[in-house]
Amino acid sequence: MALRLFSKSNKVIAGMTVSDDTETDVLIIGAGPTGLVLALWLAHMGVRVRIIDKTAEPGTTSRALAVQARTLELYGQIGLAEAVVERSRAALAVNLWVTGKKRTHVAFGAMGEGISRYPYPVIFPQDEHERLLIERLSRVGVEVERSMELLDFETTHQVVAHVKKSDGSVETCRAAWIAGCDGAHSIVREALNIGFAGGTYEHIFYVADIEATGPVMNGELHVGLDKSDFLALFPLKEGGRVRLVGTVSDEALRRETLTWDDINTRVMEWIPINVVRVNWFSTYHVHHRVAEHFRKGHAFLLGDAAHIHSPVGGQGMNTGIGDAVNLAWKLAWVLHGRADKSLLDSYEPERIAFARRLVETTDQAFTAVTSSRPTARFLRLDVVPALLPPLFAFTPTRRLLYQTVSQTNVNYRESALSELHVGPVRGGDRLPWVKISNADNFAPLTALDWQVHVYGAATQELRRICSTRDLRLHIFPWRAEMARAGLRPNAAYLMRPDGYIATVQPEATAGRIGAYLDDHHIAAVGLSASRSQ
Ligand SMILES: Cc1cc2nc3c(=O)[nH]c(=O)nc-3n(C[C@H](O)[C@H](O)[C@H](O)COP(=O)(O)OP(=O)(O)OC[C@H]3O[C@@H](n4cnc5c(N)ncnc54)[C@H](O)[C@@H]3O)c2cc1C
């Protein structure tokens, strides 16, 4: 399938018209959530991008439903969070049903209160989510180029890519960098010859968008468990409509083509629901795999192209968005000549470590939810429903669950970019969130620049260094909540543009922040001067 056609002018090769070269800084392959967020962040940072997708239209069926708090925080930096929240439904409670009987009701409430501005996940179907991202991208002057399929590319000191257009002609596109956001069957990954080790679950997954009535249509999450399968019901913004996601492990059903009629009766046996209309129904297999590398030379892998796993826990799309933001600011700094190319070396170690952990834990969770072994069944059907309410009532376990699922505890402590700690907060941690009257300490992060935070008072030396480096210094008067969040008075927190702490220096050595920037070959100056819009 590899096609290698090189041309500098319009001509016909092997029956295909190859058009003039086009040039950009970053060529993004795939306009799923990962590619769209990468394009959006890069555009906000004044980087020239092209984003192409082989489909003629955006997706109309939803896969991911849960948008986690960390994603909303990152969206907050580009003014997108509130639009998502307005269009979503908050997930505030879950009910567990075991073979048709309600066994447990757990109110999440604002389980992440004090940890994030977004204390619970929200439900926002992926198709609507993508439409919103496309609209925002258009506002910053970038249109998704559709019916454009990447065929092949080569990289030396730059990327030369061949893209098939809807009329069958092939365009050569030159770019400084290429980002493979092209999903599980990534051509970018294949072209780079990067392995995608892992496996495929034997279960068939199904997803259905339905209109229904009954006790489960109450705006809460419902999870049905039985001997070896599971079923989850997600409320949508419009009352009366829900999304059902489930698995079928039954050998007889797996042999045939699964239809809604095959599972309809089972659904009603598990949860009390009266289905009025099925808008769409689809089945799919789920894999658990992580790419061996997330980067080769001038090419990067992100999102499902780099890692896929079971949808249990609602992490996949959010992880792809995390990849996109991690890479976006690094590319922007390098392309604007404000950092050495070695900054890009940190993308793979920072994101692959989290992806590997995630695939492992979602695999364990999925196996626990679907295993037919007697011990697993006993745990799932008897122990978990009994244990869940007291676990949620106990603040430390509730907070830990929230931090894990919301991805607010993802950190880059092991990264070469992360240094030191003061108190419990380390270089590589997400900035602890603190509410300050009607605002919060995340507000300055909308500048998308390197900046220094001081909670308390800043030394003269720190002020001087920030001024000579053109590094914004944000001083927040000290309050008790800051100590509770793990911050320490008068320490200097050097923030990366993605809201993670690069290094934290105690008051006495706050001036060493300059040395950090020199060691990592970073010019801290904000990007505003070089932004095009
Ligand atoms: C049923 C289900 C439920 C899920 N629930 C959740 C959830 O609740 N929360 C969550 O976080 N995740 C969930 N996920 C996972 C989530 O849907 C994916 O992780 C997400 O879609 C990945 O986004 P992406 O942009 O990386 O890839 P994709 O969405 O797969 O997008 C890739 C894009 O690349 C394009 N493309 C491919 N090849 C080429 C080419 N050669 N040239 C040009 N374009 C190309 C494709 O057309 C596509 O538009 C769920 C998944 C499923 C299946």
Q: Count of helical segments?
A: 14
The ligands found in this model are: flavin-adenine dinucleotide
Determine the fraction of residues in helical runs and give it as a percent range.
25-40%
Structural class: alpha+beta
Largest sheet geometry: 8 strands, mixed
CA-atom Rg in angstroms: 24 Å
> What portion of the residues fall into strands of 2 or more residues?
25-35%
The shape, in one word, is globular
Number of strands: 29
Average of pLDDT: 90
Low-confidence stretches: 1-14, 529-533
Oligomer: single chain
The end-to-end distance, rounded to whole angstroms, is 40 Å
Structural description of this entry:
The protein has 533 residues and is of the alpha+beta class. Helices cover 30% and strands 28% of the residues. The chain is built from 14 helices and 29 strands. The strands form seven sheets. Strands 1, 2, 3, 9, 10, 11, 19 and 20 form an eight-stranded mixed beta sheet that branches. β9 (149-155) and β10 (159-164) form a beta hairpin. α1 packs parallel to α4 (126-139), α2 packs across α3 (81-87) and α8 (316-335) runs antiparallel to α9. The radius of gyration is 24 Å and the shape is globular. The two termini are 40 Å apart. Residues 1-14 and 529-533 have low confidence and may be disordered. Bound molecules: flavin-adenine dinucleotide. Flavin-adenine dinucleotide (FAD) is lined by residues 29-35, 52-55, 63-66, 126, 149-150, 181-183, 187, 205, 207, 245, 284, 303-304, 311, 314-318, 320.
Task: For this entry, give a set of tags.
533 residues; alpha+beta; seven-stranded mixed sheet; 28% strand; disordered N terminus; disordered C terminus
